[in-house]
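ok trying again, last paste got cut off:
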Amino acid sequence: MKHVRLWNLGNDVEEDTLGGRISAAREAAGLGMEDAALRLGVQVETWRAWECDRDAPRANRLVTMAGVLGVSPSWLLAGIGAGPVASDGSRDDLIRALESASAEALASQQRVFELLRRMKAADPT
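nice, full thing came through this time. structure:
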């Protein structure tokens, strides 16, 4: 599968942390810290602690946060998968984002079919 990087965070070491990716995704989504915290239902200080790597969200919050920020949970955790789309809303940026999302969906579908095939092969009934 071809991976397309649609975000450009620069070379800052801070961006290679969970907090750095949370911050970058929030900014790419055009949200202030207060708005993001409100949408997730947490205190601003909690959100700030996450962005500063003083604390980390629990798994359920991280998944919800990914949805609020428009990124995949795996991108927030490890920088792998669908990250924020650095876009001015141009047609080319949107096409690249759609191509990337389509490629990821296809890869997921192929993985599901492979697992299903293996499961059926392991169960002779």
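cool. Helices lie at 18-28, 33-40, 44-51, 59-69, 73-78, 91-122. DSSP finds six helices and no strands in the chain.
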